[in-house]
Amino acid sequence: MNAPSVAQNLSDVRRHMADALAKAARPADSAALVAVSKKQPIDRIEAALEAGHRIFGENRIQEAKGKWPALRARYPDVQLHLIGPLQTNKVHDAVALFDVIETVDRPKLARVLSAEMERTARRPKCFVQVNTGQEPQKTGVTPDDADAFVAACREDYRLPVVGLMCIPPLDEDPSPHFELLAALAQRMELPLLSMGMSADYEAAIRLGATHVRVGTAIFGHRVG
Ligand SMILES: *Cc1c(COP(=O)(O)O)cnc(C)c1O
Predict the structure, then answer these.
(1) Residue 127 confidence (pLDDT)
(2) What does pTM read for this prediction?
């Protein structure tokens, strides 16, 4: 895929988002598009930046560190979301680089994040990741543990928790997972919901997503 089609794909995805919001009787600006640029060639990312897009998602600290500082020097208003698992030994880099950390999922990570935010006075907004499918290989707190963990993040660790995030099982209808996440967030009075990817972002918007994470529908297939 070449550069012009990234701009076209972006406008197609934005139009589909607008249609889904309208159908759900939601305000046109109530869902943000996180363009997932992991494993994408720089020219595709630059095409999105040139088309005016500013919110991006990456799942690996090392990869993000390699490409975003130079791009950010040219586009200072870029907002970066971390959407992949975070090891505690990478927290320093994550807090320095990311504006939003969507994958807070265990007490040890919450504690180390809290200490790093205290030390550096940078406070990336946090989402708690929920393993809605209770898949053993996936990160995220279980739905049963979510209330207590969110309460600990807020009260014990004083993290700026703004919402919940989930990645439904690949082989299932995602809608029940989106509904579960929305119900949990409502119960905890968390305003933001990160859910929905290329295959299902419209369904996620109908069920309340405020952030959709879309990669291949914007950039084409990942390389490497
Ligand atoms: C890769 C990834 C996405 C984007 O997936 P696409 O199917 O390419 O849209 C979204 N969320 C997370 C957590 C990811 O790792």
Answers:
(1) 99
(2) 0.97
